[in-house]
Cell division protein ZapE
Amino acid sequence: MTATGIVHLTERMPQISGAEMVAALVPPPQFEDATFDTYRADAAFPSQQEAKDLLIAFSGGGEQARGGGGWFRRAKRGPELKPGVYLDGGFGVGKTHLLAAVYHAMPARRKYFGSFIEYTALVGALGYKNTVELFRGSDLLCIDEFELDDPGDTMVMTRLLAELVGSGTKLAATSNTPPNALGEGRFAAQDFLREIHAMAASFQTIRIDGNDYRHRAVDGHAKVLEPAAYDSDIADAAAIGLASDDAFADLVGHLARVHPSRYIRIIDGLSVVGLRDVEPLTDQSAALRFVAFIDRVYDAELPIRATGVSLDLVFPEEMLAGGYRKKYLRAISRLVASTLS
């Protein structure tokens, strides 16, 4: 029986075990059926088809769709690829779709798909040694939205990936920044430059150009509701499923008390996310936590209903001009799409 009613995310303090984290390392719902065949390369940007072809070769063959799954045929061997591929491009050009297509197409016995933050959270939960042993011998590790915002995470992921590549694991990653530029403008990267460059040497960088598909048919602004319309939408959603209803400031404050790896559990079971009295963010740490939260909301394909300031305006100009600009712009893209769904 489907749960219904209104819940407050500020009252949720989810816990998640290491085993549950591992079980969750699969493509998010919106990409659970992503294939190379369903990736629509934009003819105006040849790099999209080039990336698709390279990734088909990296995955070990071609693909032909059959119902909800697929079967494989060996493709002609192309040039020898590095053990890792790194998809670099802007927002909404299909990087995550292609990453999920690699995951589904590679006929691997053991393969994992997760965001950068999920992998670092797993290290925190299980310990570095146990995490290495968990992934050792795996065929494929997919890492979505590679981040190096924290020096400690930089060192941990560098060591982890180096050990896995040494044991034969293939790596596929996405980011909005080329590998050699990771960390640039975010923290004092000089101490980690050698590690960053060593990690980049394991990857073949694949550039994907294009327009953000989420903005191709919209004006770029998130939808704002009047309070009465908001109340009506939340009530309608609560009649057939679970709808959340929280003051924006209260939710932002609550996110500071929950580890980002658990944000996915905060929205568990929801059919819509409601945010009242949205206002511009003033603290960078709070803004980055909100970005991580929106990533989970977007991956879960949850619509957002909001009042107050338009959600595409929550990151002030001084934030957009800083080192996290690309991350904020990605969040804006996802916020606009979520309020229009």
